[in-house]
Write the structure tokens for this entry.
Amino acid sequence: MVFLIKVQLREDYSNLIFYLSPLVAVALTLFFGSFIFLILDLSPIESFKIFFISPISNSYGISELFVKATPLAIIALGLSYCFKNNIYNIGAEGQLTMGAIFGGGIGLLFNDSTSVFLLPSMILFGALGGAFWATIPAILKTKFNTNEILTSLMLTYVALFILDYFVVGPWKDPAGYGLPKSMPFPDAGRLPVLIDGLRVHIGVYFALIISLITYIIYNRTLFGFKLKVTGLSSKASQYAGFKYKNLIFYTFIISGACAGLAGLFEVSGPIGLLYRDISPNYGFTAIIVAFLGRLNPFGIILSSLLIALTYLGAEDAQLFLKIPSAVGFVFQGLVLFFLLGTDFLNKYKVFIK
Amino acid sequence: MSIDLIIGILNIVLISTTPLVFAGIGELVTEKSGVLNLGLEGLMLVGAVTGFITLVITGNYFYSLLLSIISGVILSGIFAFLVLNLMTNQIATGLALTIFGIGLSAMLGKKFGGTPIDGLNPYYFIVISFLLVFFIAYFLSKTKTGLIVRAVGENHNSAYALGYNVIKTRYLTIIFGGVMSSLAGYYISICYAPMWQEGMTAGRGWIALALVVFATWRPWRLLVGAYIFGGVAIMQMNLQAIGVKLPGQFFNMMPYLATIIVLVFISSNKLRLKLSAPSSLNIPFEKNQ
């Protein structure tokens, strides 16, 4: 039997397929994921239970889900501005680190403070730190035409070394047995938790508020309209007289500030001090979250929960199935592959004759 | 400085730079045909781990090299299918490939973490890397096929109208790039280290990408660029050894800062960048347009 596959460009743009394709991508990921478990000689159903259900079957697990989803959502919301504008800031990990250094630095500088202003100023400096680090690729892009993908990525490595310098050097805890970590932040510099005894913190509210503001900006403001037009056609945007360079600046600063905020929330929330590995690649994973959420502010909230689950699942899988937690990255990579692949159906009609 | 020391340093530079040459020259050919593959880091890691595992299990260098190459063909084939047939965003697809490769290599290599192996002599690869650059420079500028690759990268619509198979050409260049990245990874885990460790390529895939821009898409400049980078990386160690007082982290960030500075320098001349960059780079080819 011969199948002839014919492809035709869609004239009608399908919103249904656009929002359905993430679900298809997740389903395909699970399907192929089960083969990975089979190869590893594990029962797929049992493994999926450990991976996706048991991590969130108690209140601690659900709290952890929100702890992981919060930074992912905040960073991805920021990145959505860049990606909508066809600007590829992939250095969110570095901007997150800078946010942690700036904001955390304030916490360490005033480490005997009990003032109610300490936490707000840490949050402010966290966002500023991230924005500052994102301004560098923005300036290089607009003034010197330098590829922002490479510069933002290189700056990530630089930021990680700067953090390393501080935690083994000037900010090392004198009572820390020589370990590369800072003193803990004072209580006034810790992010309040939502429920006593659990780690879920008020960052969740920030994520929701940012998502709402982003929705309003995208749908109700001139700035959002400019982003949309530029993303669809940079020529149309030029004809309309939109200043592309300014858009690059604003989107970089917004995404950097969001990443910095997320970094500060991590160190002043669950971690409570500065050390080397403050982020398990949140800055990179948030790129997937942004795409999986279709750059839609509410979609990103949903996708951040899903990707957060792959983090928790990977931890449980390491504990109970004895497979490395990197399996989480495999799932994250697969889901992005399938999402991009299924987008084809959004652009084209496929017939089988 | 004695002659021995200079020779010693040159030797280390040669050994440590070779993976950059392999990955960089592969990506250069891919980009010349108009495709940007950001998945080098993932391809290198998977190439490194498959070669390593095969060597531990079979003890045969040929099989391990073969499997490493096959891993590159498969992974870059998947990338090619997505960006060429399904016309996905090349940047996002490349990132997916990198994340997938980081995860897959860590998963596969978990049991082989501390296994000792007999490393392969790096000098074969060093010689091959030089020959490769020579061959690619000749191929791109002097052969008909090389001209087709460049035509496809400059304007895929014209190349298609002239009767060249754009998709097939790009499949081949992507797979070539993928195999070169696998070889770079293989070299790192079998010759350079020789061992396996999670994430052992340490960002070399990204540096190789920057090198292609640095070289303004020219093979010989890529070789020179790779050795400048390799030299800077080694120099920082030696500066520390002779007692320059700066925290180690600042030396470690130098290659990355140098990359940024060089990129700024190269790209600030818009005309030069425009003249040397393949015009169809990162633009999907749609036949029915």
Notes: Chain B has one domain: 3-276. Chain B touches chain A through 48 residues (CB under 8 Å). The two ends of chain B are 64 Å apart (CA to CA). The mean pLDDT of chain B is 88.
